[in-house]
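Support case: user asked for a sample of complex input and structure output to validate their parser. Sending the pair below.
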Amino acid sequence: MSQLFFGYFAGMIAITSILVVALRNPVYSALSLLVMFFHVAGLFITLHAEFLAAVQIIVYAGAILVLYLFVVMILNVAQDDRYHSQWRIAGVVCIPLLIESMLLLSGGAGAVNTGSRSLQSGPQDAIDTDNTLAIGKTLFSTYLFPFEVASLVLLVAMIGAIVLAKRDIGEHNT
Amino acid sequence: MTIPISYYLILSAIVFLTGVVGVLIRRNIIAILLSVELMLNATNINFVAFSDHLQDLGGQVFVFFALTVAAAEVAVGLAIIIALHRSKSTINVEEFNLLKW
């Protein structure tokens, strides 16, 4: 049963991620990215990360993708979108990467999944009981300082976005 | 019954390579930012898969931080795109060649 779910989610994620790159209209690219976000959230649920699945849908699908669609529609540039003129060089760069990753995966696939589930121990059972509670406790104890830094990053990004997108700074003085 | 971790690695590698190819071959700057989102999601899948595999919540916390950085990146990137579109009235990356020799 879990293999069935994984196969469905993985297949849809792979197909929609390829469609994001292959589709010509940016609106369609953004919409297929939306479908991919939902399937990634489903994959998170099968991995016992329910809090992250909810956050994935709320933040990625609800906030980030709406921002993308807003900018695509405010700029109104759906036409004349083709591939970069350097796409042959890019392909030459990417093909060795693809072959390399295939070699790594074919060489390492048998070795990785042999001892997969054998070293689960008892004391970490809290991960299964309440995912949000466990993440909150970890976030506010071990990762407290990175949490504060993340808030600073968001503040700087907000100020930067306002300053960059404002039409003319200081125009109201004249 | 359980899925081996290598399957998640293969899925993540496929999504990440798709993002790299998208960044390299697309000309629309919004499509390039969408491909960056693909790469961030590939790393998120990896983090959560290993968090479940090793029974360690640190991976899920790092996905949380990656999501924060993705939100900041999108806000600043789209503001830059709007400023570029205002100055050149195009979002084709080949038109932005001021720093080329």
